[in-house]
Design a protein that fits this description.
The protein is of the alpha/beta class.
């Protein structure tokens, strides 16, 4: 049966002659023989009824594996050597599993681009992928060393880290974008279990201070802007901008209880962010609107430890909240920044529950009191962020409760860095970081009780050194159970991920001519008669432009823009083509459009609504006609 099916496909495919010409000797006799043989076979096919082809569709999602030092093809037994290679091979629904190790991206560029929806990239595995623990099996992402020899090495600490990690050189052109970033439709992206260290992107002075003249200042380590983006169980360190910039585009469920979230919520959870500029987390963009999107703008910020954010451009926050957001902020530790939370847009919908605030130079909660004083105010006692008082006085949700001013006990803090931080705070007058706080921390960590002098930007954002064993990244507060990042995951476990591999049932595709799918041609009538059932077809065509408005197939087809389907025209603009965003078929469709090449389209043809003799095809798969 298999051989028969393969023969049938060879008989009817219109590109058979081209392939034969490509593969045979290019003598005149050989070409003549090829053409004669092809025409004979096609004639045999046309004398019989149209060919019926049986095809079992390939799995729609796959698991891809990565291990540092490997040079394989992405299987568990033979992994890729870098997540960049896996991302190039991945399509919507795939899961990329990354083992512990140090990764630098293509050409040591320190770039990993997410450009398809519903991709999951998961680190924290041991070498054979039998165990996942992101804070034990550290999966680290870095950029190579800048070719300017003074970029980092003027700093003795930076130079020592370069040599300790054996960081390769990066010789690409300047790219000021985030290290891990979404482009195009990256709805549903999940990044889980990575350490992202950005120090090689910046210039440091001989006195160890970060220079504000070079590098992608203001750029986050992770930037995701589509619904459902999630960052979990990560460590982000040494970023000359926000640690994470993410958008709040989720929808509030009808039964809205704390801890019950929808899949389209963005999320940052169980993540440690240390040594950033401006904000640890930037959540200024959302889609909430009381008139048009009253349930929009939702995002979850849960069980994160956010420490040591430095001021730049007037910003200095652990969490910065935007106007059109409805944030749920639960069980985080906010510390050692100008402010814990910045709510500067008269936003009354932030739900703050069970968070711990300490060591803020200017105040714990910074908010715009537009309703009364019309001024920007500061609240130090965060226990006031509760119930009706929160709603009426402090511009936040009445569901807020249980916030405290506390002091976590952290081990393995970089004492050189802490001394720099305290010296700068002290030189600026102390603010809310009292001498008692500084003395307590110095004593706890065995530091000298008296610091050195510093003014202005002296003692500013040096490299955080995690130590040779990286224990200095494990900033878990042992005296605050359930607060901040959790060593063994929220509720004592880490999420598990596996691609949702689905194999469709065997499907028959009837090969037809493209011209017969156009108005008043012979295949239009049977397709219209098939109505909501449609007709499975296989055709060869050229692809035209994407069409943003053409969603005309019957509801039973499942094709809709909000379900990730994209509409294209064929080259003649007579026929509509529908493809799922981020799939391999979508990638081939775009490539064929760019190259002006023909492709083989397999899918279900329907009558397009509003025009009884116009046809649309819901694409299952695409094959290239190219011999490459």
């Amino acid at each position: 049966m298999v051989a028969t099916l393969r023969t049938a496909r060879a008989i009817v495919r219109p590109w058979t002659l081209a392939n034969l010409r490509h593969k045979m000797w290019r003598s005149g006799a050989a070409l003549a023989h090829a053409e004669e043989e092809t025409m004979r076979r096609m004639s045999v096919a046309l004398l019989s009824s149209l060919a019926i082809l049986c095809l079992s569709q390939a799995a729609v999602a796959k698991d891809i594996y990565v291990r540092a030092g490997s040079n394989g093809n992405g299987t568990k037994e033979n992994p890729y050597g870098d997540p960049d290679l896996a991302l190039r091979d991945a399509y919507s629904g795939d899961v990329i599993h990354v083992a512990a190790g140090l990764y630098f991206g293509a050409a040591s560029s320190g770039k990993w681009k997410i450009a398809k929806p519903n991709l999951t990239m998961v680190g924290g595995y041991n070498k054979d992928f039998t165990e996942r623990h992101p804070f034990k099996h550290l999966t680290r992402l870095m950029q190579g060393e800048d070719p300017d020899p003074t970029m980092c090495r003027d700093s003795a600490r930076c130079k020592a880290l370069i040599e300790r990690y054996q960081v390769p050189g990066y010789k690409g052109s300047y790219d000021g974008t985030a290290m891990v970033r979404g482009e195009g439709d990256h709805t549903g992206t999940i990044i889980d279990g990575f350490v992202i260290d950005s120090f090689t992107r910046y210039r440091y002075k001989p006195n160890e201070d970060l220079s504000l003249k070079d590098g992608p200042l203001g750029t986050p380590a992770i930037e995701l802007s589509k619904p459902g983006a999630k960052v979990r169980n990560c460590i982000i360190v040494n970023t000359g901008g926000p640690g994470i910039r993410i958008n709040a585009l989720g929808t509030k469920p009808d039964k809205d209880e704390l801890g019950v979230m929808s899949d389209d919520w963005s999320e940052v959870s169980n993540t440690i962010i240390v040594n950033t500029l401006m904000e640890s987390i930037d959540l200024t963009v959302g889609n909430f609107d009381q008139a048009t999107a009253p349930k929009g703008g939702c995002a979850l910020i849960k069980n994160n430890t956010l420490l040591f954010d430095w001021e730049m451009n007037g910003h200095n926050y652990n969490l910065y909240q935007g106007r059109q957001t409805q944030l749920t902020v639960i069980d985080n530790i906010f510390g050692f920044s100008g402010y814990g939370i910045g709510n500067m847009f008269d936003n009354r919908f932030g739900r703050y529950v069970g968070n711990v605030f300490f060591g803020h130079a200017s105040g714990a909660y910074h908010y715009l009191d537009a309703a009364a004083t019309k001024g920007v105010l500061i609240l130090d006692d965060v226990t006031q962020l509760e119930g009706e008082k929160c709603k009426k006085q402090y511009q936040c949700s009445k569901q807020s409760r249980g916030n405290v001013n506390g002091e976590p006990k952290l081990k393995s803090v970089d004492t050189f860095f802490l001394d720099k931080f305290f010296n700068q705070i002290a030189s600026q007058g102390g603010g809310k970081v009292t001498m008692d706080t500084m003395t307590s921390w110095r004593s706890m960590l065995g530091m000298p009780l008296a610091g050195s002098a510093g003014t202005g930007k002296v003692n500013f954002a040096p490299v955080w050194d995690p130590g040779a064993d990286l224990a200095g990244l494990m900033l878990f507060a042992e005296n605050l159970p359930g607060k901040g990042a959790q060593l063994n995951g929220v509720d004592g476990k880490f999420q598990e991920y596996q691609s949702q591999t689905v194999v469709a049932a065997a499907k028959e595709y009837q090969e037809v001519q493209w011209a017969d799918l156009k108005r008043a041609q012979k295949m239009v009538g049977p397709i219209v008669a098939a109505a909501d059932k449609g007709m499975s077809v296989m055709v060869t065509a050229k692809v035209g432009d994407q069409d943003m408005s053409s969603y005309y197939l019957p509801a039973a087809s499942g094709v809709a823009r909000d379900k990730g389907w994209l509409a294209f025209r064929d080259e003649s603009r007579d026929i509509l083509l529908y493809v799922q965003s981020g799939t391999e078929a979508h990638s081939l469709l775009k490539q064929a459009k760019q190259e002006g090449a023909e492709v083989i389209i397999k899918g279900t043809a329907y009558s397009a609504g509003g025009a009884g003799d116009k046809i649309g095809i819901k694409i299952d798969a695409i094959e290239s006609t190219s011999a490459d």
